[in-house]
Amino acid sequence: MRTQNATAYRFLTPYLLIFAIFWIWPIISSFIISFQATRTVPWRFAPTFNWGRLIGDPAFYNALKNTLLILVIQVPVMIALAIVMAVLLNSPLLKARGLYRFAFFAPVVVGEVAYSAVFRLMFSLDFGIVNKLLESVGLAKIDWFSNVTPAMALIMIAVTWRWAGYNAIIILAGLQSIPEDVYEAATLDRVSKLRQFFYITLPLLKPVIVFCAVLSIIGTMQLFTEPFLITERGGPGGGTETLGLLLYRQGFRSLNFGYASAVAYTMAGLAIAITLVQLWLMREPK
Amino acid sequence: MTSRSQRRLGRSIALHLFLTPLALVWLFPLWMMVVFSTMPDNGIFSPGIELLPHDNFLDNVANLQRDTNFIGAIGISVSVAVTYTVLSVLLTSMAGWALARYEFHGKGAVVAIIFGTITLPYAVVLIPQFIMVARDFALANTWIALIVPPLFNSLGVLFMRQAFSMMPAELFDAARVEGVKEWRIFLFVALPLARPMLAALAIILFLASWNNYLWPLLINSQPGAMTAPVALGTLIGLTKVSWGGIMAGAVMLTVPMLVVFVLLQRHFIAGIAAGAVK
């Protein structure tokens, strides 16, 4: 094929300019800034200034612990739920499919601020509808915002509500690409539906599930709005502080860009490492 | 045969018995958003259980407008989202077209860089972007700051590249033989053919801009320059604000998107299933 350099770059240049200025350069710049002391003017090169501080900072370990805790509990629960939703929405026995699809997919269009506000109100101690319903069935009300464990649970519930349907959409698309005759053959051989799910559906869905898991891990790794708005700046007492929130406070409240960049690169490193481990664990057995 | 159809019926009942409560739980926060938005504050903060809408919505909108200029913020959000969507669809489909249909030097490198950096968390670019836009370009609290930096999104490029590369080459070669210029082929042959994909991309980009929170929070923090989610976010956690008002704002942000979702569900789902954004 003949090369068409001039034509191709006329189409590409506008996008590539934006991409270079607002994506590629910041990726490099952020890495450089993480090795600079940024609270002196002018900024000076100090390789261990931020990274040294990071290694000894209890606030960093607290945020790291919380982020990983949310990650290892919330992501698997949400993906499992999304698989259940997708498989059941795909069932030929389902009536009023549109209504169920709406129920599970609607949160996908809801903004973080709007749903954070609603969850905050629904879970409030004395006037929240959730505690009122708990009490009306004879259970004790829960102080969702003053104790760490319920506060963490609340963050996980909120994120799961917001994103399970999103993942279910992707998994449903994967399910619908599995050819019908695979199941017909299994049904003729009297393989039960449950066994069909575990021995046909799940293995065929593996790439899609890995894709969802990777997206969710990258998203949860940066979790910011929910602990910022629902549990009020990572409360109680830093109990729901995440790496995203630490980055925000260091970068944009304390204007400590160097340290915040080190936090950002830690998040990136973790996201990449976890993604690679995941891809390795889910590799095709040879 | 009877036992088989009975088993089918049993399975169908079990399916609905499981899925219906789950669906109701999933709808509950949205329903409560609407209910809260129609209740006066002393109703929201009362010991009774209220599950049905009242008639206080317009008062709540007025309360919200008293707490922050929400209508103005909605105006900014709409203008920014529309402009962003148009620009982003144009930029990413031009780039996707070039990557799908031309051979050129550096193509492999461009694709490798886009793919190689796609899974990096956005947090990594946040600080340099902020320093650049706020300090170097002095563009904080402007529309440009809200619209231009998020245009870097590369998933749209990959999505459109995929769309264009699936089209048969004869379509474009026929036009070339007749001497039609490349940009006219792109505009008048390729883009119309890609309409369903463009629709999916546009919806997802509009939604992403409409709901975007972190970047607008950082870069446009002055009251007159805030987007609607940022303006609403400033009220959460304050004392002496109207929670009915906050909920009315949440409804105004959410319900139009739910309507769009219902009307254009097919495009929406196509866009998400292809991973067009995030």
Q: Looking at the chains present, what oligomeric state does this protein adopt?
A: heterodimer
Instruction: Count the domains of chain B.
Output: 1
Spans of chain A with pLDDT under 50 lasting ≥5 residues? Answer: none
Tell me the domain tally of chain A: 1
| Overall form of chain A | globular
Task: Decide which structural class fits the backbone of chain A.
Answer: mainly alpha
Please report which band the strand proportion of chain A falls in: under 5%, 5-15%, 15-25%, 25-35%, 35-45% or over 45%.
Answer: under 5%
Helix content of chain A: over 70%
**Annotated CATH homologous superfamily of chain A:** MetI-like
Q: How many strands appear in the DSSP assignment of chain A? A: 2
Helices of chain B, by number, come to 15
Unreliable residue stretches of chain B: none
CATH class descriptor of chain A: Mainly Alpha
Q: Shape of chain B from CA axes?
A: globular
Strands in their spatial order, largest beta sheet of chain A = 1-2
Distance between the termini of chain A: 37 Å
| Structural class by SSE content of chain B | mainly alpha
- Give, in order, the helices and strands of chain B: HHHHHHHHHHHHHHH
Nearest-integer average pLDDT of chain B: 91
Order of helices and strands of chain A, N to C? HEEHHHHHHHHHHH
Which pair has the most extensive contact? A-B, 98 and 95 residues
Explain what the structure shows.
- The complex is a heterodimer of chains A (286) and B (278).
- By secondary structure, chain A is mostly helical.
- Chain A is built from twelve helices and two strands, in the order αββααααααααααα.
- Chain A has one domain (50-281): MetI-like (MetI-like fold).
- Chain A has helices at residues 5-33, 49-55, 58-89, 97-105, 112-122, 129-136, 148-176, 180-188, 193-221, 225-230, 243-253, 257-281, and strands at residues 36-37, 44-45.
- In chain A, strand 1 (36-37) and strand 2 (44-45) form a beta hairpin.
- The longest helix of chain B has 36 residues, at 2-37.
- Chain B contains 15 helices and no strands.
- The radius of gyration of chain B is 24 Å and the shape is globular.
- Chain B has helices spanning 2-37, 41-44, 57-67, 70-101, 107-117, 123-136, 143-147, 155-165, 170-177, 182-193, 195-211, 214-219, 228-235, 243-263, 265-273.
- In chain B, helix 4 (70-101) packs across helix 8.
- The mean pLDDT of chain B is 91.
